[in-house]
Amino acid sequence: MKTGAMALAGAAAVTRVDAQAPAAAAPAPTGPFTLGALPYAPAALEPHIDAQTMTIHHDRHHKAYVDNLNKALVGAPELQKKTIEELIGGITFLPAEIQKAVQNNGGGHWNHTLFWGLMAAPGAGVGGEGEGTALGAAIVKAFGSFAKFKEKFSDAAMKRFGSGWAWLVVQEDGGLAVVSTGNQDNPLMQGVVPNADRGKPVLALDVWEHAYYLKYQNKRADYVAAWFNVVNWTAANALYEAAVAPPVKKGGK
Ligand SMILES: [Fe+2]
Predict the structure, then answer these.
(1) What is the pLDDT of residues 204-239, one digit of tens each?
(2) Which residues surround the ion ligand 1 when the cut-off is CB under 5 Å?
(3) How far apart are CA 52 and CA 63, in angstroms?
(4) Cβ-contact 232, 126 below 8 angstroms
């Protein structure tokens, strides 16, 4: 009797949901932000990062950040005109009701776009220690040796409890620092991350489980060690040189 009553109640609930469900859902916005293609084939980073992880990470996780960022901006046409850097750099100036959505999803979009570009298939300019680049030299100068930098960066990646990122940033004084942020926060986020952790990222490592769990399961340390084999030092060095370049004077000759 009890079971029958529950079944009836369940049927009624299903009927109500069905009656409400269709048609009303608005189509998801397709902009202003879009998901760019991976700059290489999903299998390009193997054996260090596997194709299935790359495909799911890009096509589902990154896509969700883009979709949810666009949804958050539906009622804010003025904000739709801003760049992603303007949005995430000025989180605290956004309307309170969308701040968290932009922080999480705008951060997710920017972080992943950077992450893909800072990796490449093992080969020229990839892996190693950034030899022959201004960034490689700056790392040795700042940390004493590449090994000491690698230890510090790996430590930051390992000690990030839960989900987040490890970064190498150029700080306001031009110096390099290893920092870590939680969730999809990043060092550009003024008023969100401590000032001591702010700067312009030149290396980025995603330590969310979705970035490594299929291949490495709970062995984050193995993933971090493997990631060093696919670091795109050419791209990282370009970011470094842009970050330390003197600002262009406006109106001067
Ligand atoms: Fe990720």
Answers:
(1) 999 999 999 999 999 999 999 999 999 999 999 999
(2) 206, 208, 211
(3) 15
(4) yes
* Total structural domains within the chain: 1
Rounded Cα distance, 229 and 232, in Å: 9
Q: Which tens digit of pLDDT belongs to each residue from 69-116?
A: 999 999 999 999 999 999 999 999 999 999 999 999 999 999 999 999
Does 219 reside within a domain?
A: yes
Residue 32 falls within a domain, yes or no? no
Residue 13 lies in a domain: no
Is the residue at 178 inside a domain?
yes
Write out the two tokens for 221: 């340390």
The CATH number covering residue 205 comes to: 3.55.40.20
pTM of the complete model beyond 0.85: yes
Q: Specify the DSSP element, H or E, that contains 98.
A: helix 96-101
Whole-number Å distance, alpha carbon 148 to ligand 1 midpoint, is 26
Domain that holds residue 85: 46-245
CA of 35 to the centre of ligand 1 (A): 14
Q: pLDDT band at residue 24, thresholds of 50, 70 and 90?
A: low
Instruction: State in Å: Cα 56 to ligand 1 middle.
Output: 10
Distance CA 77, CA 64 (A): 21
Q: Output the CA 197–ligand 1 centroid distance in Å.
A: 20
How far does residue 146's CA lie from ligand 1's centre (Å)? 26
Interval 46-62: pLDDT, tens = 999 999 999 999 999 99
